[in-house]
Backbone:
């Protein structure tokens, strides 16, 4: 399968393969134009590709410093609180769902936010604060 009597299918008969090879050739020609790194592995195409990629994504130190210096400090904005489902609260506290429900009834667990008739969620920050308070109580 995939071969004809004389060998492999010619590229001209497979437009998808020809298109892919053309794209690959265009990409590699860009890499060939880039200066190879000055290292003992300069002749290694894998290392040349890695160095080219690193150079393309690494900001120049002067550019980075000037960009950070010119940034204006932003005013603190109130982000929307993250909500956790019952299962997420259970996983975060390592308590079972039934234990959380029992503690909610006793008033010893953070109050949930009602989202619908049968849906509640917990405020992430309140659960974290509750866990931190449990940790502080042990000392």
Residues:
């Amino acid at each position: 399968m995939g071969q004809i009597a004389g060998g492999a299918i010619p590229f001209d008969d497979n437009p998808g393969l020809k298109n892919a090879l053309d794209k690959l050739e265009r990409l590699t020609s860009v890499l060939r134009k880039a200066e190879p790194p000055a290292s003992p592995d300069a002749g290694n195409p894998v290392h040349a590709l890695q160095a080219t990629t690193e150079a393309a994504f690494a900001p120049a130190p002067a550019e980075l410093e000037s960009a950070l210096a010119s940034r204006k400090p932003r005013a603190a904005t109130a982000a929307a609180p993250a909500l956790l489902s019952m299962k997420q609260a259970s996983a975060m506290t390592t308590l079972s769902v039934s234990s959380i429900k029992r503690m909610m009834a006793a008033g010893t667990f953070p109050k949930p936010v009602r989202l619908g008739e049968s849906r509640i969620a917990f405020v992430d920050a309140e659960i974290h604060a509750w866990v931190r308070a449990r940790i502080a109580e042990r000392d």
Remarks:
- The mean pLDDT is 77.
